[in-house]
Design brief:
Layout: E1 3-4, E2 11-13, E3 18-20, E4 28-29, H1 32-36, E5 46-47, H2 54-67, H3 70-78, E6 84-85, H4 86-93, H5 97-109, E7 113-118, E8 121-126, H6 129-143
Antiparallel strand pairs: 1-7, 2-3, 4-5, 6-8, 7-8
Length: about 150
């Protein structure tokens, strides 16, 4: 097996009580001005939150619940800068290999990280730009000045 692929089906991860995630397919509204722009200009697709199904809301809530564990969040943040091995994550965070592997399995099931096997090691990285952007946006949010509250 050359790479570890994320789960493709929704449902519980055996033995964990945790839901395996599926892709949330955005119901996009195409901005006519954005559609008229050249292909090299980034266009923004907006998710219609009011049309999310109950299953999609449950998956979204489960994703945020996964991010609520400090160790899991540290593991995810360790993967932001690029592929990192399970052993390097464990050493960097002073966690056991088995605990890091367990958390990575859950993060992979939620499609937050992707793993790629290289010889006897698996290297993990953030799954896509959406995950990186959520982490960046929330880090920016908590660092903002809230003195006006």
């Amino acid at each position: 097996m050359d790479s570890i692929s994320p789960a493709n089906e929704a449902g519980p991860v055996p033995g964990t009580g945790i839901l395996c995630m599926t892709a949330l397919k955005p119901k996009t509204k195409v901005d006519k001005q954005a559609a008229a722009k050249p292909a090299d200009v980034e266009t923004h697709h907006h998710l219609d939150y009011s049309s999310l199904s109950q299953n999609e809301i449950t998956i979204l809530a489960e994703t945020f619940r996964l991010l609520g564990d400090p160790s899991r969040l540290k593991i995810l943040l360790s993967c932001v800068s690029g592929p990192i091995s399970v052993g390097d994550i464990a050493e960097k965070l002073d966690l056991s290999l088995s605990l890091v592997s367990h958390h990575l399995r859950l993060l992979r099931g939620a499609r937050l990280v992707k793993g790629e096997r290289q010889a006897k090691q698996v290297f993990y990285a953030i799954a896509d730009q959406h995950v990186s952007q959520v982490l960046q946006d929330m880090a920016t949010h908590i660092s903002e000045d809230h003195s006006d509250e």
